[in-house]
## 1
Amino acid sequence: MVEEYRKSKTVEGVTESSLYEISLTLRHFHRLTKIITSRQLIQHNIDRYILERGKEVKRATLNKDIRNLKAFIHWCEQKKFTNGNVKSKLLKEEERPVKSLDTSQWGLPVFEHIWMFGEWL
């Protein structure tokens, strides 16, 4: 089933790096839940995965895994591998401060090109 999903994503044009991330998520899911059949894709096992994986990674990574898992479950539902009663939500993340660039990171001297009133000065 996982290999079929990977092939379907390849046909859709998903990048190799995204396929790798999807594979990692599904490997972690299998490692933590020991699920081997689509009939075992039930709410209890999804919740257990989220709790266990949350002990290993930060929320941003866990949310990425949840997104990947939701896409996989949705695909399984479309292919009639599951009954469609599985739900999951992303977790709230701590707000990260916005970091502004300093002039050395701009790539151009600060006052060399200034856009003002619709034209370059």
## 2
Amino acid sequence: MFFRLYREQAAYGQWPLLDSTALESDNANAGEHMKISWPKVSLLVLCCAALGFEVWHFRSSSAPTTRSSESSARTKPPDFSLLPASEVSVWSKYFAPGSHANSWEPTLGDMNGVEAALPQITALSNTDPDLDRHIENPSEYYRQYLALQINGKKKLILNAMCSVDHDANWRKHFVVVRDGGKCFWHAVYDLSTGNFSDLSVNGQG
């Protein structure tokens, strides 16, 4: 209808007559443009789909990792603390009155050595006929270390507790508990031999 009206108006000189060849050329160019555009559109759709899948995969895989990290944090064994030299007097008061013990500064290697020797505690406790005084997993206790030098020999006093709820300052102050059973125990580590000795497990009270 449009083209018939256009031709009639063009015949009277009102509108210029379009070249049919030009129209056909434009249509052909449009067709070619559509042929070129469709692959681009398809490629864009595929890219969007791939991106969406990656986002979904990241979210679904990150959740178990978070839960695993939380689980590891819950099962992490208690840690230890090297007490300041000022606590030597507290130890002397309760365990060696009248002794003249001096403090010394352990190295990182010394602390790694005493921690690696913790399984010896289990072997020492197993010599006690009372099963209630056996220490199965010494690394699961909160551990205080006090560096003492007695008669020229360097030693580390290990003071262990199954809980520190009663003392928030356990990292700085020597904790003394008289009973509590195997929840509380202490031992002596000799730097020259690399061995624990003098294991003492608290009574039930």
